[in-house]
Each structure stands twice: as C-alpha cells, then as structure tokens.
Amino acid sequence: MAGGKQTPRQKMIGLMYLVFISLMALNVSVTVMDSFVLIDDGIKRTNLNFTKRVDDVYREFRQQMALAPEKVEPYYKRAMKVQELTDSVVTFIKFHRSDMISRLDKIPMEKADTLSLLNLKTKSQYSKTSAYWIKDGNQDMLADGGQGTKAYALRKKIEDYKQSVTNILLELVPQERQERFLEGLQLGIDTEGPFLDNNGKEISWQRSMFDRVIPIAIATNLSRLVTEVKNAEFEVVSRLYSEISAEDFSFDKIEARVVPRSQIVMLGDHYEADIFVAAYDTKQKPTIVVDGRSIEAKDGVGKYRVPASAIGSRSFKGEIQVPHPVSGQMTPYPFKGDYIVQRPSVTVSADAMNVFYVGVDNPVTISVPGVANENIRAVISSGGSLIPRGDGKFTVRMTSGTREAKITVSALMDGGTRPMGSAEFRVRPIPNPTPKVAGLNSGAAVARERLQAVPRVTADPEGFDFEAKFEIISFTMYTIEAGDLRPYNARGGTFSNEMITAIGRGRRGQVFTFSDIIARGPDNTNRPLSAVVLKLD
Questions:
Q1: Which of 196, 198, 445, 500 has most Cβ atoms within 10 angstroms of its Cβ?
Q2: Under CATH, which architecture does the 347-428 domain have?
Q3: Domain with CATH 2.60.40.1080 in the chain
Q4: Mean pLDDT, to the nearest integer, of 107-128?
Q5: pLDDT tens by residue, 358-378
C-alpha cells in the first residue's frame, strides 16, 4: 500500500517534512524555532485546502445519491465511515497537541487549541514533551514509547486507521481486481520505518517522533500528521467515488437538451420536443460518420456543419462509435436527424466558448441568414466594447465589474432596421496562472546549473484558450543557510544577484521555496500565486 509513485500532494508533504527534519537536526536558536512557526502555518493552510477538496468529493457523493440512490448507497455509506474514522484520528491528534501545549504553558485547553506557535512560551523544553509522549504510562521495561504511552496509542490509531480504510475499499471490489486496485494507492503516514537515531541505530516510530524533540517541533509535526491523514482520506474517498461507475461510460459534462420534432410549427399545429439531460465525456474522441463522411470530435462533441445552399427540408443519418470503458471495443450508436432551411434568423456565437474573459480579445461571429454581413448591426451591454473586424467577425473586450454581457443584433432590411435577437454571455476574470521556476513546476528536483542558467519565475494560465501574458511583479526565495531560514526578495521575475549567489552555495538536497509570488495579467490586477518548492539534485 505504501509503494508506487507519489502523488503531487504527497511530494509537497514530503518536501515540507524534509525541511522540518532539517530544522530539528540543527542547534535550536530562536530563529530556527521561529522557522517552525512558518512551517506550521503553511501546513495548516495546506490542511484547509485538503479539507475543501475532500468536502467537494463528499458533495459530489450526495449529488449522485440524489440521482441514483440504489446504485450509490453502498459507496456513500462507506465514504461516511471513512469520514468518521478520519475525524476520530484527527480529533485524537489535535486533542493531544492542545493538551501538550496546555500542560507546558499552563494555559486552558480552549486557549491552547488556537495558540499560535509564535506565542508558545516553552518552545524548547523537550524533557517535558518526552515524558508526556513516551514515558508517562510506559509498560515497556526495555524502551520508551511502549504500550500505555500516548505515542504508542497514536501509532496504533494511525495503523488501525490505514487498515480499516483499506478494508473498506476492498469490500466492494471483486477478488480478481483487488491486487490491481491497490496498485498505486498512496495512504502515506509511514509508521514502519526503519527510523534511525543520530548514531544510525534503529529506533521505534514513537522515539523518532517524540524522544528529546522540542515542543514546537512536535506541534509542527502533529500538524503534518493531520495533513497526511486528510490526504489519505481524500485518496480513499476519491477511490470509492470512482468505483460507482468503474464499468460505466464516464462523463464529465452534463447538459439539459431539448430535441424538437421540428423547428417549424404551422399555425394550428402543436410544438413537440424531447427534453432530457445529456451527458458526455469531453476527453473522449468518438468516431462519428454522417452520410459516409467523417466528422471531427472536439471535447467529446462532433460538430456537423453543411452549407445551407437552398431553402427546404433536409435530412441526414449516421453512426457514432465510442470505446467501452473496460473492453475497449467500439460500440456503435446510429442516429438520424432532419432540419429545415429558411430565413431569416440570427446567430451569435463566441468562437472560443460561451464566456467572455476580462482583459483579452474574445472573438465572436455574428450572422443572419439571408442578410449580408455588411448589413448586420450589433451592440453590447455596458461594461464591454464590440469591435467589428469584417466578414461577420467581431472582437469583444470586457472590463471588470460586470458578470454578464448581452449582444443585441439588428439588420438593415427593406430600407429600415429590424431586430434579429440577442445572446447573453457570462463574464469571468482570467483564471490564475500556474507559477514555474526555471520552467519547472513545484515539487521538481533541479540541477543548480539550470537554476543559474534560467534564473526567473514565470506564470502562464495552463489550459486557457486565449493568449494571456502575466508579468511577475515580485517574489521571495526562502532557503535554510547555516541553520537559519533566509529570505531573498526580488522585484520582477528575474533572480537577484544575491539569489544566484545563494543558489551557487546550495548543496544537493537543499530546498529552495519561491513564495509570495505576485503576478499581473492583462486585466491589470495583481494576483498572489502559490509557492514553488524545488530541491537541488
């Protein structure tokens, strides 16, 4: 269960733990102890992110329960059990963390629950924490941390938790799939070791965690344990959720669709339509053939486009083939359709999507069948500008402060202006870009020479359909030197000379954290970005 490739979340946890271990091995100066405060605050922010992500999975579970209760209930009940087990472990860790702080600083538990480690008075009194965790109640005559101690109870609770959630996962998986199912499962929280003391002698997990370790370091490490437990919860609950439809066709897009019997209704007749929810996979590339002609699929959807060269009824038929999720064999689904060509009606379409983004050029095509493009007139609601480019093409530029835009179209016909219709679009800010250092994402190992050769921080919105350039305004590089956490500040996106010098002094395995990154995009707003953590290779 502990083997396999690490997830990005666990790589980040591991890097934070490396910094934590490095700090514990140093002479405990005031500066070093204050560094634990920074690490603990960072871990707590990470815990909040994990909590939000796993809450999103639980919310999706509830939505699926409402749609298909009989199918989802077995998985949902087990997810609730995982949540209960996780809350029990997290509560145990947080209680004893607060209890330790309460006893050390002689303050009430409710104050210890929220006390910042910066205000911890007994930051370095490791003798009391050793007694609290591995000596008090010890029933092992040969070693500290035996049965009866809080450290032993914590280890057992973690190990029981890992075994319990693994069993929950396997309850719904057929025997022949269990081994493959467990491949790559990353629960983390290693309690088996081996763990070594300063002399290279193997010791228990309990002693590695609590034997002669200063209180501020223990408090930080307990926060890290909460992170690992929440990460394990996310892994398990996500696996349970994926098992709901393990052999179903997967869909990541759901839309309401109305399919009318005919778009044209004669006076005195009835309008008839099928109304349903359509689900499809935007990552799928189905094979689509219409009247013997292949149709390209984009984001799982084929766009059938033929010229309307004459007025009247038209029909078509074809077949769409999609691979079965397990066997991979192509499954055919025949279809047919018809339409009527007439005039006039209006079409307003955003060329990229039904969203306008602030600060970039949004291309739009506007056409009215039967009306020449030069006779089309269009206006946009306040907060935006509509710039004609010719041949029915327009560019929309939006300003901040508005959430929706409406394009109204009219046409010059018979010597006058006639309204043709309108279309509404959502207005959204450009998504935050992904920061990189020397072209690398956070968590990567990097050669010193590469950092010196490409000494810059960049940010690009990955997966964004428009060209949007972001300028780095400032950032800070942190690293540990001579036992101290040293910050180096820079304006712009290029390393300062001091940063390059510090990198040149770096040793293999040394961690460099680039945080407090501020980027400015086309919408002229400053955005704080997430940190990039790199380790010298």
A1: 500
A2: Sandwich (2.60)
A3: 347-428
A4: 84
A5: 989 989 988 877 677 888 899
